[in-house]
Amino acid sequence: MSLHPSSPYLKVPAGARWKDAVAGKPAADIDPHLAPRMQITPQQQVASAGSCFAQRIAEALQQSGYGYMVAETGPGFIAEADRKALGYGVYSARYGNIYTTLQLLQLFDRAYGRFEPAEPLWRNAEGGYVDPFRPSVQPGGYASESECLWDRREHLAAVRSMFEQLDVFVFTLGLTESWLSNEDGAVFPVCPGSGLGGEFDPARHRYHNFSVAEVSEHMSQFMTRLAEVNPRAQVILTVSPVPLMATFEERHVLQATTYSKAVLRVACEEIVRKHANAHYFASYEIVTASGDSNNYFAPDRRSVLPAAVEHVIACFRRQYMGDAPIPAPAAAPRAATPALPDQPMCDEQLVMDALASHTAKGQA
User: Fold this and answer.
1) Which of 80, 101, 248, 320 lies 20 to 30 angstroms, CA to CA, from 20?
2) Cα dist. 242→22, 94, 256, 260, 276 in Å?
3) Which pLDDT band, with edges at 50, 70 and 90, does 294 fall under?
4) Number of C-alpha atoms within 13 angstroms, CB side, residue 213?
5) Gap between the Cα atoms of 211 and 340, Å rounded
6) What H or E segment, with its residue span, contains residue 359?
7) Are 82 and 73 in contact (CB under 8 A)?
8) Which residue, among 44, 105, 64, 46, has the nearest Cα to 271 in the 3D structure?
9) What is the distance between the alpha carbons of residues 306 and 298, in angstroms, rounded to a whole number?
10) Helix (H) or strand (E) holding 180
11) 141 falls in which pLDDT band (50, 70, 90)?
């Protein structure tokens, strides 16, 4: 069937047509972006945050020669080899993984004294003190309450500095499922009592799965607050392609994952259409919809392999770092058991490991 000469579809760019943009192309050649709306220069300061997959983008930016911002470098006496294990340099500040938009919004509000959660500290099984809002950054916990609170003050000061000085903020949305405080609505990265600290109390804690409207509203509020302290800031939003490790919903984890990613993707679209300084980078589409799942996911169908990460980073460089060299895509030979990359620090994994250990002890 041919189009009439007056059809407006005759004027859409090649990237808007599946036949030209996707069909028949090797996975590594598919780039789901059209002309860029912005470019990052080597002089600009780029900060990042988000879920586990966001660490991949942070690593690539730090290796690019561009101005990746690390506002919280840690005490000088910590050896360079130990810094990453303690959460320094994993992101632009030592906040660990930020899984939800409400977590990001509350981080901003805590940094600027707008919100002081009613649940200030947790204790772990070893008796250490844990920051409930970044429970995995200090392995084993802090030795004392005063040490934990002092480190938090230093951390929030670094967060303020980051928000005020950055030029570009890259945020990867990861989850919609969360655990909240019934008292003041504070959102935690993990459920209290799940191995990283705290005790779960159904009178004080509740499960919640955010809707599109909620995710969009939280992100929009963050955009407004960020503009108040840094009018020049540009924000790049991306959705993590990593499926849920587990769901608290009474349904299959595949359904829960599809819901979560759909909500996050739609919310990103709403934010980009509402805020002129918001941009969307399609890492989710690159990894999940390129048609090369055997080479982009490990046999567990969840762990993202190096070929996928390199494809994502090549597209990011092409879209936002036009004068940076674009590395050739990694060869992706098919193999029954492809090698796993070094996995990013993930609170979900730590929780599942703790649950597995607890179960094993109970069965011993």
Assistant:
1) 320
2) 22, 22, 13, 11, 28
3) confident
4) 0
5) 33
6) helix 347-363
7) no
8) 105
9) 10
10) strand 177-181
11) very high
Classify each residue of 260-281 as buried b or exposed e, where b means 16 or more C-beta atoms within 10 Å of its C-beta: bbebbbbbbebbbeebebbbbb
Tokens 């587990």 locate to 246
Model confidence over 6-33: pLDDT tens digits? 789 888 999 999 999 999 999 999 999 9
**Residues 131, 153: contact at Cβ < 8 Å?**
no
Find tokens 């030209």 and name the residue: 20
Per-residue pLDDT of 348-357, as tens digits, reads: 554 444 334 4
Query: Mean pLDDT over residues 77-105, rounded?
Result: 91
Over residues 181-205, the pLDDT tens digits come to 999 999 999 999 988 999 999 999 9
What does pTM read for this prediction? 0.89
- Which tokens go with 44? 């600009």
Q: Which two tokens stand for residue 56?
A: 């991949």
CA torsion angle 309 290 264 235 (round to 10): 50
Compute CA 320 distance to the chain's CA centroid, rounded to the nearest angstrom.
Answer: 18
